[in-house]
Write a structure and sequence with these properties.
Layout (H helix, E strand, L loop, with lengths): L5 H25 L4 H24 L2 H4 L2 H29 L6 H7 L1
Helix pairs in contact: 1-2, 2-4
Length: about 110
C-alpha cells in the first residue's frame, strides 16, 4: 500500500467508524437481539483505533502490530453479526402470514 496511501487508509477508518454508529442505531431501532455482538464490534473498533495510537504516542510498536490481527477479528465479528441478523429477518418473514390477494378477497364475498 505504501506511505503515500496512508491518508486513504485513515479516511476509510473514519467511514467505517460512521458505518458502525449507523449499525448501532439500526440495532436499537430494529430491536434486534444481538446487542452483545454489536457491543463487541464497537469495542473491537475502539481497540483498533487505540492500537494505532499506542504505537504513535508511546512507541510500543509491538503492540501496535496487532492492528491487522484485530482487523481480522473485527471482520469476523461483523460478518457473524450480519449472518445472525439475516437469519433473524428470514425467520421473522417466515412467521408473518401471507396477505390474501385482492382477487381472493372479492371471490370470498
Amino acid at each position: 500500500m505504501g506511505a503515500s496511501n496512508i491518508e486513504l487508509h485513515r479516511n476509510m477508518a473514519h467511514v467505517i467508524g460512521l458505518l458502525t454508529l449507523l449499525l448501532v442505531g439500526s440495532v436499537f431501532i430494529g430491536r434486534l437481539h444481538e446487542k452483545r455482538l454489536v457491543s463487541a464490534v464497537v469495542g473491537l473498533l475502539v481497540v483498533q483505533g487505540i492500537l494505532v495510537h499506542v504505537g504513535q504516542w508511546f512507541g510500543l510498536w509491538i503492540i501496535a502490530a496487532l492492528h491487522p490481527v484485530n482487523a481480522l477479528i473485527l471482520t469476523y465479528a461483523s460478518l457473524s453479526l450480519a449472518r445472525r441478523s439475516n437469519a433473524y429477518w428470514v425467520a421473522d418473514a417466515a412467521t408473518v402470514p401471507a396477505r390474501p390477494s385482492i382477487g381472493a378477497a372479492q371471490s370470498a364475498v
